[in-house]
């Protein structure tokens, strides 16, 4: 009941004319940038992060939530019309969505994606309202060793789940931890890795890291493989659905929501697994016409995964807001936004800044409704945006990223660091290193170091203090499991191959 009252107070904050305007600007910008080819929600949020710098905190996070959800909506448009998913979680939507578009059903595919996203986002946000206070009550009992163990779990889970190779994931994490060490050590006052540059004594701004690795790195990578031909966009009219489409979509929307929210809240859960599970489930449950259309453009294959994708987005906000733990690349950049305002998500945030937190949560309901109104009638407009020539598009991204970063402190050093990190982001993509572990390592690394030092100080240097707490011991055990699971899979696969090989020789 208390949560419901706080949510009503959040609506009183979010429904002011100024904040409604910021929400509208956020969802429009998020959709506009997110709809562009190859630009997913993480890159959208990173690219638009600098523009929130001069906005009051409550308004900034209302706009930021709109950018986040708008980027999620925009990614489905690119997947359906161009077969170019902005990120891995949109790949499943592209499987059936693009085939529907090529069969002349682009309007229906865009409509079920938009309405499914609205349904899933609304239900998942309601679950966030219920779950967040419960997690906060639990997190209040956390000690330094528990927070350190939580960071270790995030490091291992993100590194092993979000990358094709655990070694590459851990290598990316190591790069992020090194970037996080730059600056003055808070406890000893010693400068670390500053190369004698005074401007680096305060460390590298998280905004510069996010924009450099995500936006600039992606722009350079795409430019290196650029084809000058304008992408072929499937014609689309106003998004609409017939009675049959509604009947085939509403159950996949609900099932996708049930898959997406819990996975989004888990460290390393992400949106890839629930979207795949939703697709596989709908394919298994398909009957009649739906079964015949699977692989050729079944509407269930768009409705379920897109709902799972957006529900997982709301799920990521549970550990982010209550524990300060990002479980995805986009959540890591949102954490950077909080730090930009000197705020640290966690149990204290709900006590010290309730208007901001609940105003942001309330704005998710409002932003969802705005996105539905924007996306259904404006689908043809977003399709025209996709015709922007790629060279102009990515040149604009580089310029916008540089202007945004320079506006933070008017520092030439920040621009140099931005382009160095952009080259690093390009190299990481070129050699298959995931970006998310680096950003999460950079953001959570300093927090993990501080909590480790505090725990060891409390334990008078006794290392066993790190496992004496039941919570810490459980989290560290889960982290070890996340590290060892890929190894066990490889050993099991090798034994399976060895068991099959003798039989094939007998033949």
From TrEMBL:
Keywords: Membrane, Transmembrane, Transmembrane helix. The keyword Transmembrane helix applies. Residues 20-440 form the DUF112 domain. The chain crosses the membrane at residues 20-39, 45-69, 109-135, 147-162, 167-184, 204-223, 355-374, 394-424, 431-450, 470-488. PANTHER family: TRICARBOXYLIC TRANSPORT PROTEIN. This is Putative tricarboxylic transport membrane protein.
């Amino acid at each position: 009941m208390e949560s419901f009252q706080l949510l009503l107070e959040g609506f009183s904050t979010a429904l002011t004319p100024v904040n409604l305007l910021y929400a509208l600007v956020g969802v429009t910008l998020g959709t506009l940038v997110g709809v562009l080819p190859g630009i997913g929600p993480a890159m959208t949020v990173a690219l638009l992060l600098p523009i929130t710098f001069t906005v009051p905190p409550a308004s900034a996070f209302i706009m930021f939530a709109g950018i986040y959800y708008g980027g999620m909506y925009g990614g489905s448009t690119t997947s359906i019309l161009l077969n170019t998913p902005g990120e891995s979680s949109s790949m499943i939507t592209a499987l059936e969505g693009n085939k529907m578009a090529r069969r002349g059903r682009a309007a229906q595919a865009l409509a079920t994606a938009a309405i499914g996203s609205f349904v899933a986002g609304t239900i998942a946000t309601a679950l966030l309202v219920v779950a967040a206070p419960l997690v906060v009550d639990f997190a209040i009992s956390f000690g330094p060793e528990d927070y350190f163990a939580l960071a270790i779990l995030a490091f291992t889970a993100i590194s092993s789940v979000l990358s094709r190779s655990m070694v590459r994931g851990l290598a990316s994490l190591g790069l992020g931890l090194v970037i996080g060490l730059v600056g003055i050590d808070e406890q000893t006052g010693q400068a670390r890795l500053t190369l004698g540059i005074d401007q680096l004594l305060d460390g590298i701004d998280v905004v510069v890291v996010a924009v450099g690795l995500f936006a600039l790195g992606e722009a350079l990578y795409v430019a290196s493989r650029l084809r000058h031909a304008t992408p072929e966009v499937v014609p689309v009219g106003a998004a609409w659905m017939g009675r049959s489409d509604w009947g085939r979509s509403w159950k996949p929307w609900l099932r996708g929501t049930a898959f997406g929210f819990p996975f989004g809240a888990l460290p390393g859960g992400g949106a890839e697994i629930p979207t795949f599970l939703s697709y596989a489930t709908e394919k298994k449950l398909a009957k009649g016409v739906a079964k015949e259309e699977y692989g050729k453009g079944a509407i269930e294959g768009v409705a379920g995964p897109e709902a799972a994708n957006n529900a997982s987005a709301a799920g990521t906000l549970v550990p982010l807001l209550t524990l300060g733990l990002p479980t995805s690349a986009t959540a890591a950049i949102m954490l950077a936004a909080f730090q930009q305002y000197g705020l640290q998500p966690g149990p204290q945030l709900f006590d010290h800044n309730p208007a901001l937190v609940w105003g942001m949560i309330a704005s998710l309901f409002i932003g969802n409704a705005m996105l539905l109104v924007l996306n259904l009638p404006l689908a043809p407009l977003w399709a025209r945006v996709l015709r922007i020539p790629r060279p102009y598009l990515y040149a604009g991204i580089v310029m916008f990223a540089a202007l945004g970063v320079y506006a933070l402190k008017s520092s030439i050093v920040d621009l140099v660091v931005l382009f160095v990190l952009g080259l690093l982001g390009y190299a990481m993509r070129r050699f298959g290193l995931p970006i998310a572990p680096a950003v999460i390592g950079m953001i959570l690394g300093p927090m993990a170091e501080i909590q480790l030092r505090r725990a060891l100080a409390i334990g008078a240097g006794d290392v066993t203090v790190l496992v004496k707490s039941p919570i810490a011991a459980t989290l560290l055990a889960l982290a070890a499991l996340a590290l060892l699971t890929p190894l066990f899979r490889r050993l099991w696969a090798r034994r399976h191959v060895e068991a099959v090989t003798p039989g094939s020789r007998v033949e």
